[in-house]
Amino acid sequence: MSMTAPHAPTRRTALRLGAAGSLLGAAGLTAGCGSAAHSEGTSALRIAQPSEPTGLDPHLESGLDGMNVLINIFDTLTMRDTENELVPRLATHWEATDEHHWRFRLRKGVTFHNGEPFDARSVKFSIERLIDPDTGSTIVELRSVDHVEIIDDIVMAEPDPVIPEKVSLFGGVMLPADHFADVGAKGFAAHPIGTGPFRFVSWRKAQLLRLAAYADHWNGRPAFDEVHFTAMPNPASALAGIQSDAVDLVSALDPEAALQLEGYKDVSLTTHPGIRMYFVVLDTEHEVLKDARVRRALNHAVDVPLLISAVLNDSGREAATIVPREAFGYDPDVKPPERDPDEARRLLADAGHADGLTLSFTASNKDQLVSQALAGMLEDVGVTLELEILEPGTFAERLASDDPSSLGSMYLTGSTGWTLDGEATMQSYIRSDRKRSRIRSPEADEMIDALEQTIDPDARLKTFRRMQEWLHDEAPFLFLYQADQNFASNKRIEWTPNVNGTLAMETAR
After folding, report:
1. Nearest to 320 by CA among 200, 478, 194
2. I want to staple 238 with a disulfide (CB 3.0 to 4.6 A). Which of 178, 232, 385, 460 is the partner?
3. Are 424 and 275 in contact (CB under 8 A)?
4. Of all residues in the chain, what percent carry a pLDDT higher than 70?
5. pLDDT in tens, 431-444
6. Which residues neighbour 321 within 8 Å (Cβ) at sequence distance 6 or greater?
């Protein structure tokens, strides 16, 4: 739907919206979620998250909610632990033998859920399928890989210094080559087979996705017999779920909605630092936004600390660029834009917009309150936003499409730089040939190429600094915040997330 928001919402407004949604949420639970904690002697961990996977082919899924399910079915070559360290998973050791070769030693005795052994053939098939253009994957992190050789080598067409980090999540899921050949891509997506701690059982879309513990997992059987995922896009539904004991864990809990659970008996609210960066992509070829003075004005007009306080209940940290603080390459000397509405008005007047201007703005309805707050702040300096708020699935489809104009001249997005290297988000949103980029700059392309292909860490740090200074000066994004992770849980579960926020339930007790 399209609408224009007249002003920023207050926290009280947000709570009213949440309360109004509670009734709808409770109704939705009655109609949809049929999961039970204990059924026929089975212990099930019941999880609510904002959305479902778009599918169960791990090479075609780039959203975090989808990966929350898949990371329980599929193991990766490496992983991040709760201390953010890169540690072994299906690969026990790794090393760069030269600029074009990474060698991985694989764990022995691992089997897929159908009994097929995991081996170097699995790695070769999985990675070469991921990078094959015919697969149509939007996961770009392994673009430098040329092929895999079965002496445990991954051979690079171009040097890439962070391949071990890139096979820790989306880029590292391992598929069974023989089974895939038998059932094909559609058959595999309908019933995925991995080596992970849980195996796929069933999926009633818009209702319940069930996984069961894999008794022969190489790292031991998980504590819970089953894990159930239910999508609850309305925060009020998630609140109703945890209050009525229909779910055990709510992830990505809306910060304002969480206020309603404070002091609620038997419900714990926990907040953990996260690495998901929120920013507004500005189309630098748009007739108005191609002027850097306009882009800088937008950044001066938005009071991000107020946004974090009033809308996010202080659940986030102000961002200077699109690199999270915990990532390699983050530069603390690059400061966020100064909040100065007068300077914003001056820049807009210099650019020929003294009487104001109107811009289109697209966002997911998960970020509706933030979008409305941005509209209110920009209205104050004479910029009117025509908001198009989409349901999350539609927004995700447009974000992944080949049409760069499908989300309009400005869109709000969140990106999790899961490799914990500053290159992660930059490579998707800056280099001119990437789907999500709205930037056409040879200088920026040259810096991204250097970050992707330079092995020397000191040289990369220098380029990261240049890149972040360029972002600060050219302002191709409206820089917002680094979001915390908010969870609500009952007493049935003990679990600690890692910084990338995925719901890997192997360690849940």
Report:
1. 478
2. 232
3. no
4. 92
5. 998 888 899 999 99
6. 331, 334, 468, 471, 472, 479
